[in-house]
Design a protein that fits this description.
Organism: Lentzea alba
Distance between the termini: 38 Å
Subcellular location: Cell inner membrane
CATH topology of the largest domain: Rossmann fold
Helix content: 55-70%
Strand order of the largest sheet: 6-7-8-3-9-10
CATH architecture of the largest domain: 3-Layer(aba) Sandwich
Membrane topology: Multi-pass membrane protein
Radius of gyration: 35 Å
Bound molecules: adenosine-5'-triphosphate
CATH superfamily of the largest domain: P-loop containing nucleotide triphosphate hydrolases
GO molecular function: ABC-type transporter activity; ATP binding; ATP hydrolysis activity; ATPase-coupled lipid transmembrane transporter activity
Protein name: ABC transporter ATP-binding protein
């Protein structure tokens, strides 16, 4: 465990941890030795010459003072190493996740990631911060006590030497048993935690369906699995733990009997027997504590595994330098892609010429969002290429690629900050005039005027203080402020009131000026006005052309339009967003 921690640290940080280990090790050894000094003190007192005890008492006092100083320095160094370690882990996790592809950030993963950065990092930092001291006491003090015993009486020391391995063997056996079940318990409790969060998040849906906690089978099952895993662990571990405690107690009893026999036979004096017993107690106490310590260490080890899993996630390969770009058209060149074995996009080819608008339409699940994600390189294609300005997105460095793109996805996420800060995300150094111009063009100015503190109004976590239409206008204002040449737009499917709808439509019209726009279209007006429509059907391009052409063709698109006019809704999404689907906002 310690060596795994050391591997994660820089040489300076390692030195800090070594310092803590050194101080605490020396302090624990001093404690062991100080027990030996009780022997001459006792002998002097029992021999009727108490004055002879004074120098030994002096040495004992000096050693105790040294112990206190070294011990406290070790504790402080350990705490410091713990905080350093937490900093190192946060930094490494932070540095690493920004290199991971956007597709890595699914809802489930971001949930796990928050557990990793809080609970798991805390647990790992506890190793140098809180466990190092009892660990040193558990390992070094008994060893020092045993060595000291050899000076008191070699036969008692031999007794320790003979019984010690039995204790060690049972300890290792218990550890192995627990480790086998620990992972299962951790996985089951993580699953149950995830289900509880999902249950809380989806209260509206569940209540509307008349499903209370009792009726939510997945949650019930996960809780039962978690409980069963914990029970199984207890059943597996209890014999080991009992065996360990028993072996430690047996060792203590053996030493007790041995000392009594030696004393009765006159082979050791009373002082030596008393010291042997004190040392035996000091030997067994930390060993018993080690059983609990083992559990804490194992938890930290599982937590470190979780941290390591995130650190081991592979970033997409990046070029050292971005290749040059031509006019910013978006080209799908025989693109195939699938999240797993099944292809979601199959040999898709089309081009969005520079400065034009292409609408993607198709049934739910036909692959529209996936195509959009591939442009922003959430994932790499399986075959073919997605090109921007003639350059494969894989030949662009991520910051260069993302600088070209303004994403306006459904359900825009807003940070719990002021409206101004949220819009400024598009271009942090924008002047007030630029900000207001973007707001005007995104039809956000009327929202700013209406809010109590104008630009300085806080929008609440996730932008809850704004309506759906208002949040979309914030996203459009962000995109206008960023002024990126390529816009990826997923139109809102949620019904907006007439005023909000016309405001959003006007704002989107502003976005399409002089930009290459790929839009997942849900509104009839958007598809009608697009320069080109790509109809996706089960991941393949079924039709491609302008509105009138496709209507005349009387194929899939014409049927969609007929349905649309019939139902006054482009399509009804029939699936819930999957837990493993990337967060697109
Ligand atoms: N992260 C993911 N992991 C696995 N499969 C996914 C993931 N995201 C989407 N899919 C699957 O890929 C297919 C295409 O999904 P996509 O979201 O691209 O379709 P869509 O046309 O945008 O649908 P909608 O209009 O409902 O948003 C679907 O079958 C979907 O279940």
């Amino acid at each position: 465990m310690i060596s795994r921690l050391l591997r994660l640290m820089t040489p300076t940080q390692r030195a800090e941890l070594w310092r803590a280990i050194g101080f605490l090790g020396v302090a624990a050894a001093m404690q062991g030795v100080s027990f030996a000094l009780v022997l001459p003190v006792l002998r002097a007192l029992l021999s009727g010459a108490p004055a002879d005890a004074v120098p030994w008492l002096g040495i004992l006092a000096a050693l105790t003072v040294c112990y206190a100083v070294v011990q406290s320095r070790g504790v402080i160094a350990g705490r410091r190493a713990g905080y350093t370690l937490a900093g190192v882990l946060h930094e490494r996790l932070g540095d690493h996740v920004v290199t991971l592809p956007l597709g890595w950030f699914t809802a489930a993963r971001t949930g796990t990631f928050s557990r990793v950065t809080t609970q798991n990092v805390m647990s790992v930092m506890g190793v140098p911060g809180h466990l190092l001291e009892p660990l040193a006491n558990a390992v070094v003090t008994p060893v020092a006590a045993a060595i000291t015993l050899a000076f008191v009486d070699w036969r008692i020391a031999l007794g320790v030497l003979l019984t010690g391995p039995a204790v060690l063997v049972t300890y290792r056996w218990t550890n192995r048993l627990v480790r086998r079940t620990d992972r299962a318990v951790d996985a089951a409790s993580a699953e149950a935690g995830g289900q509880v969060v999902e249950f809380a998040r989806n209260q509206l849906v569940l209540r509307a369906a008349g499903r209370t906690a009792d009726g939510f089978r997945q949650l019930d099952d996960a809780l039962v699995r978690s409980r069963n895993a914990a029970r199984r662990m207890l059943r597996t571990v209890l014999p080991g733990l009992a065996g360990f405690v028993l072996s430690v107690q047996a060792m203590f009893t053996a030493l007790l009997i041995l000392s009594a026999i030696l004393l009765t036979n006159g082979e050791v004096d009373v002082a030596a027997a008393v010291v042997a017993l004190v040392l035996a107690v000091r030997l067994t106490e930390p060993l018993l504590a080690a059983a609990e310590l083992g559990a804490a260490l194992r938890m930290a080890s599982v937590a470190l595994d979780r941290v390591q899993e995130v650190l081991d996630a592979q970033p997409l390969p990046e070029p050292a330098q971005s290749s040059a770009l031509g006019p910013l058209a978006i080209t799908f060149d025989r693109v195939s892609f699938g999240y797993d074995d099944e292809l979601v996009l199959d040999d898709v080819s089309f081009t969005v010429p520079h400065g034009t608008t292409t609408a993607l339409v198709g049934a739910s699940g036909s692959g529209k969002s996936t195509a959009m994600r591939l442009v922003a390189r959430f994932f790499d294609v399986r075959s073919g290429a997605v090109r921007l300005g003639g350059t494969d997105v894989r030949d662009l460095r991520t910051p260069d690629l993302l600088a070209l793109i303004a994403p306006v996805f459904q359900e825009t996420y807003l940070f719990d900050a002021t409206l101004e800060e949220n819009v400024r995300l598009g271009k942090p150094d924008a002047s007030l005039a630029q900000l207001e111009e973007a707001a005007r063009r995104a039809r956000l100015d009327e929202v700013v005027t209406r809010l109590p503190d104008g630009w300085h109004t806080r929008v609440g976590e996730g932008g809850t203080r704004l309506s759906g239409g208002e949040r979309q206008r914030v996203a459009i204002a962000r995109a206008l402020l960023k002024d990126a040449p390529i816009v990826l737009l997923d139109e809102a499917t949620a019904a907006l009131d007439v005023h909000a709808e016309s405001a959003v439509t006007e704002a989107m019209a502003e976005l399409s000026h002089d930009r290459t726009l790929l839009v997942i279209a849900h509104r009839l007006g958007t598809v009608r006005d697009a320069d080109q429509i790509v109809v996706l059907d089960h991941g393949r391009v079924a039709e491609l052309g302008r509105h009138e052409e496709l209507l005349a063709h009387n194929g899939l698109y014409a049927r969609f339009i007929a349905q649309r006019e019939h139902a006054r809704g482009w399509h009804i999404a029939t699936r819930l967003k999957r837990k493993d689907e990337p967060c697109t906002t």
